[in-house]
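Database export, one record per block. Field names are fixed; values are copied verbatim from the stored entry.
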Amino acid sequence: MADPRRGGAARGARRPTTSSGGRPPAPKAKVDPPRAAAYDVLKLVRLEDAYTNLVLPHVLAEQGLSGRDAAFVTELVSGTIRRQGTYDAIIRACLDRPKVEAKVLDALRLGTHQLLSMRVPTHAAISTTVDLVRARVGQGPAGFTNAVLRRVTEHDLDEWIRLLAPADTLGFATIAHSHPRWVVEQLGHALAAGKRREELDALLAADNASPKVTLVARPGLVTVDELTEAGGEATGRTPYAVALPGGDPGAVEAVAQGRAGVQDEGSQAVALAWAAAPVEGRDERWLDACAGPGGKSALVAAVAAGRDARLLASERQEHRAGLVRRATAQVGAGMAGIVVADGTRPAWAPGTFDRVLVDVPCSGLGALRRRPESRWRRTPEDVAGLVPLQRALLEQAVIATRAGGVVGYVTCSPVMAETREVVEHLLATRDDVELLDAPAILGSVPGVHLDDVAGPMPGTVQLWPHRHQTDAMFLALLRRR
């Protein structure tokens, strides 16, 4: 008789053959399409360092998934990646072997998320995950998957956290909120600098909450009313921000035409504050020195157009410069042009511009709610490697600005090495720069309603997901004396 552990035929028994004499193919497991799509996204994220928000729409389109199926895939993928650290700890506790094949682990994470954080019946979560492994990996790993997931069901999520999380504050936060320990430490330091250390749990929890898609109504091109009539809701945090309840933002006519765009309110706010900072003398020549992918360029160029100013957008990488061209295509009069140039080796003469915006490459730890995979990719060494570039870009931005002009230094990271320490280094090495009061300037922008935005050093702005419902944007405004 057959060996029930392997599902094979008894020794010596004859297997049925096809008409051509070969063995018949193994029966194909039926795979649930939404779960198969989620598995494919995790594979792309793991193997190709893809970003979920960029590859997910393509996978959904390829699989022909929309509506409730697309929403299910989005929650399954995003939630699994956000909670990966927690789920990996739980899965390890349920294993009887030291290692698991990566493609099996992807499926186990998806199954664990369904069991512990989604309203999916236990039987459905386990059986569909087992079918997925059987189809994509093999029969043996399918049985192993079934056993592990059944052990996962022995406790709910809170019980697993109590069982597995270390007693120390950082260790507990690492497991409970699914962040690498070094990231928890860096975020804690940043909060402490603003006397907000007790808000660490709230910040980490906000990183794990799915953010709404926020649109920007580019001034002079579309009104907020037009976007709200298309189903959005004005947030009131900036004069141009409209939140979508769901769906594809590209289906909104103004977005499809380039008159509106997808842009976080924090990004809108810091760009508007930079455009509002007072300059001495003329105010006609603006530069966005790190323009890709073009969201800030499109917004400030639209503002510039209404003030008889022109923005030059510069981007080092050609393909990202192409994104800037697409984002700014409808702005027209507000654009002076787009150049492919390295901001550390400028293509313009010193003192050319009245305003320079430099949104530097950074760790991105301020946007973990939108790009959850970043927390698993970044390392402390990455931050250390970025700091010299950030210092060089800020230095060149100052050099490009004429006396009396304003520089805006922006990062989507609250990490001290990328924010306060970069600005302090500049102020310590140059005597022709003064720090302006960025919180006061931001507060003076009509239609901006963001309270208690003080940053890690006096005069700077730090926004937070848990306090402002924005990405953790940092802003320093500096005047060239």
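Remark 1: The longest helix spans residues 380-400.
Remark 2: The chain has a mean pLDDT of 93.
End of record.
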